[in-house]
Amino acid sequence: xxxxxxxxxxxxxxxxxxxxxxxxxxxxxxxxxxxxxxxxxxxxxxxxxxxxxxxxxxxxxxxxxxxxxxxxxxxxxxxxxxxxxxxxxxxxxxxxxxxxxxxxxxxxxxxxxxxxxxxxxxxxxxxxxxxxxxxxxxxxxxxxxxxxxxxxxxxxxxxxxxxxxxxxxxxxxxxxxxxxxxxxxxxxxxxxxxxxxxxxxxxxxxxxxxxxxxxxxxxxxxxxxxxxxxxxxxxxxxxxxxxxxxxxxxxxxxxxxxxx
Length: 260
Ligand code: FAD
Fold this sequence. Notes:
The protein is mainly α. It has helices at residues 16-30, 39-55, 60-75, 83-89, 121-139, 148-160, 164-177, 184-202, 238-248, and strands spanning 2-3, 14-15, 36-38, 80-82, 106-107, 227-230, 233-236, 254-255. The protein has two domains: 10-107, Up-down Bundle (Four Helix Bundle (Hemerythrin (Met), subunit A)); 121-253, ERV/ALR sulfhydryl oxidase domain (Four Helix Bundle (Hemerythrin (Met), subunit A), Up-down Bundle).
């Protein structure tokens, strides 16, 4: 059930409803499409859940949900994981002393499109991975495992993302430059700049929501200090961009409007 509402979301905020909706959709719908998971696809799924446990700043019941699922997956050592078994393991448990719940409704707030087929899940998935790159930089050693989140994203997109053409584009960008990322802070910037590359490619195209034109982000009204001019040409002030991304994709900027 998809809820529509008249809210005009604040573009400077993140909404827990978007994050939880995208998590629910990715785990229980998108990743549960194949009749069973095995090999690299099963590894990609385990890796995604393990990364979420480490860095997703969820509510207590959602953190418990992710931890329970992660522990269950670690225990699953058979080569094949049938969808029916996985779906059973991904059900909520509200009765436990520590409830383990990821809401099953899909409600888009910051990611709501002006029409049903615009925005929604892909917007939520980008938001989750930006949030994870920032949380990994804030909560882990800068020079260790710089690709922890980016390679999780690369595997997730390659094995599960429903838009095949998008996955191929993303894989091409990753293959070209992702392995040159040398720190967790560079990982934040890699994802930001490549998301802007995607925005530039899609601007004016037929997947663009006319009410949400593709911009080079953050636009000057969200972050004036992120922009500068060098010999009359627009340029990014990268240290300001990093500061902005760290504040934007921070737990204190996540709002509970319309969360279950
Ligand atoms: P989105 O681009 O989804 O962005 C979501 C939110 O993130 C924005 O509202 C903004 O708040 C913020 N944001 C925007 N830019 C940045 C940035 N540079 N850094 C940090 N935050 C930012 N669609 C296609 O038609 N073709 C493709 O090839 C394609 N490839 C994709 C690849 C991936 C990995 C993903 C996740 C999606 C892809 N999509 C593609 C979908 C497309 O990128 C958008 O997600 C979709 O069109 C919805 O756009 P949106 O306006 O909600 O903003």
